[in-house]
Amino acid sequence: MALKAEEVYAILKKQIQSSGGTPGPAGVGIQKIEKTDTQGLVDTYTITYTDGSTTTFTVTNGADGQDGQNGVDGADGASGIFPQTDHGTADTTYVLPPNEFHTWGEVAELNLIFSEGDSGKANEYIFSFDSGVTATVLTLPETVISDLVVEANRHYEISIVNNYLAWTSWAVD
Questions:
Q1: Are both 118 and 48 inside the same structural domain?
Q2: Does this model's pTM top 0.90?
């Protein structure tokens, strides 16, 4: 529960009087501070006190400095686009490198092993495949955490980062 200034003053006054003291007059506080003028680089601020009196002060701002020199251009970076490899229905046991997109057509089974990623980078293992009339048997490293259950007649798009598998799928004919 917040108290108003007058309530706090009344409580303190009673405590002072009960201890044999005499309270002094109420003090003056700041009601508001506002910028009231600008002339060139000088801003003027006005302080209004709770007793209605005011005072002003100024702040001199700095002028814009000269522009600095341009820095040296950095080396060209990677495009950020993952290379894509289409395996068709071959290579169903494959060592999957990170940060590349690998696709398979309709495969009965797909056994993937992850190659070691780059140190200090978020390595993503990305692949897709089609599951036919019989659901594809997908085998991944045991460290992968997933709720994926492969169903028949679906296309799967899969991404694995930090051993967490994210996926989406849709029906295929």
A1: no
A2: no
The pLDDT tens digits for 26-62 are: 788 888 889 999 999 999 999 898 888 999 989 898 8
Reported as a single tens digit per residue, the pLDDT across 69-117 is 888 887 777 777 889 999 999 999 999 999 999 999 999 999 999 999 8
* Residue 171 near residue 153 (C-beta atoms within 8 A): yes
Same-domain pairing of 124 and 89: yes
88 and 163, same domain (yes or no): yes
Residues 40-63 as b or e (16 or more Cβ within 10 Å = b): eeeeeeeeeeeeeeeeeeeeeeee
Together in a domain, 55 and 89: no
Please name the residues in contact with 143: beta carbons below 8 A apart, sequence gap of 6 or more: 163
Please indicate, yes or no, whether residues 107 and 157 belong to a single structural domain of this protein: yes
